[in-house]
Design brief:
Distance between the termini: 54 Å
Helix content: 40-55%
Order of helices and strands: EEEEEEEEHHHHHHHHH
Strand content: 15-25%
Largest sheet: 4 strands, antiparallel
Number of domains: 2
Structural class: alpha+beta
Radius of gyration: 24 Å
Shape: elongated
Length: 308
């Protein structure tokens, strides 16, 4: 082997955890994920070099975070490409699909997000629960079919939230464990729900099944809210709008699943209201958290926790 006396540069990696669009340009929150300290030397926007500021300045050790601010005359509705260049020439790209001003969080904005959450979660769940009289009138074979559909629905939710959580885990720094961000919360949640469900050795009645179904759907809907809020946080407005429509339609079927176990139970209006709130209202805090405190590694863990 020949020794040329020159060591290759260390493998560098970083994660752009969040990018905000301001009146004056872009603000990127980044996290280093390299074995050796790395230095952001240059920043390009749409192929041109731009002056930037870094706070805190200097090289980034492993897992350290910093904020890059670039003054850039962005164009509303246009696509912009941001590239970070390190001192050894490594490049890291981020695309802003639709440049829109990142909103400042005020009471009015939180109220708007809460309204979206109610329309996405609570209202469709309540509409689905209105099918209860029709479900109750079904023969036993029809009821078994509805319950089978409910089980299939919960299985579909479980698989979808695993896939969504893995997508967020892939975007997060691999120092956080990648897929373990999904499977550890999943395992802990499963153990917790199993422990709660087995506190009583008596067979589960329809009311208990409905309660656990509403709880599981509510936890899943929290993840839906987190996804919607995260889409707004990273300026993916079109994705956020698509998710709002899709989740609203999907949640109507979840309302049917909540009331299906109650067909042989004596139920009153307060019970329906409580189940609807438990299943549908968690979308609201999910949107708030996703929009206010978005980070890929937190999103991955919370999505799986809320999708179990």
């Amino acid at each position: 082997m020949f020794n040329l006396g020159v060591s290759p540069p260390p493998a560098e990696n970083l994660t752009i955890e969040r990018l905000q669009v301001t009146d004056h340009g872009f603000i990127a929150d980044i996290r280093a994920d390299s074995t050796e300290p790395m230095l952001i030397a240059q920043v390009t926007v749409d192929g041109a070099y731009w002056v930037f500021t870094q706070a805190p300045p200097g090289p980034l050790a492993r897992m350290e975070t910093t904020t890059i601010t670039v003054d850039f005359p962005w164009v509303a509705g246009e696509v912009h490409h941001l590239q970070l260049v390190t001192s050894v020439g490594s490049t890291f790209d981020h695309t802003i699909d639709v440049a829109l001003l990142t909103p400042h969080f005020t009471g009015a904005l939180l109220a708007e997000y809460a309204l979206i959450g109610v329309l996405v979660g609570l209202v469709p769940i309540a509409l689905g629960m209105l099918f209860f009289p029709a479900i109750r009138a079904l023969p036993s074979q029809g009821l078994e079919f509805i319950l089978a559909v409910t089980i299939g629905l919960l299985g579909d939710l479980f698989i979808n939230m695993i896939l969504e959580g893995l997508e967020f885990a892939e975007d997060a720094s691999q120092m956080f464990g990648g897929a373990t961000l999904v499977f550890i919360p999943m395992t802990l949640t499963a153990l917790a729900l199993t422990a709660v469900g087995r506190r009583s050795h008596q067979p589960r009645g329809g009311l208990q099944v409905a309660l656990f179904t509403a709880l599981g759907i509510g936890m899943h809907n929290f993840g839906e809210g987190l996804t919607i809020g995260a889409a707004f946080a990273v300026n993916k407005v079109s994705l956020g709008a698509f998710l709002i429509v899709g989740f609203a339609l999907h949640n109507t079927t979840e309302g049917v699943g909540v009331v299906a176990p109650l067909v042989k139970e004596k139920v009153e209006l307060p019970l329906f209201v409580g189940l609807a709130l438990l299943a549908g209202l968690p979308v609201v805090p999910g949107i708030w958290i996703g929009a206010l405190a978005f980070s890929p590694h937190w999103a991955a863990g919370l999505l799986k926790y809320n999708g179990f």
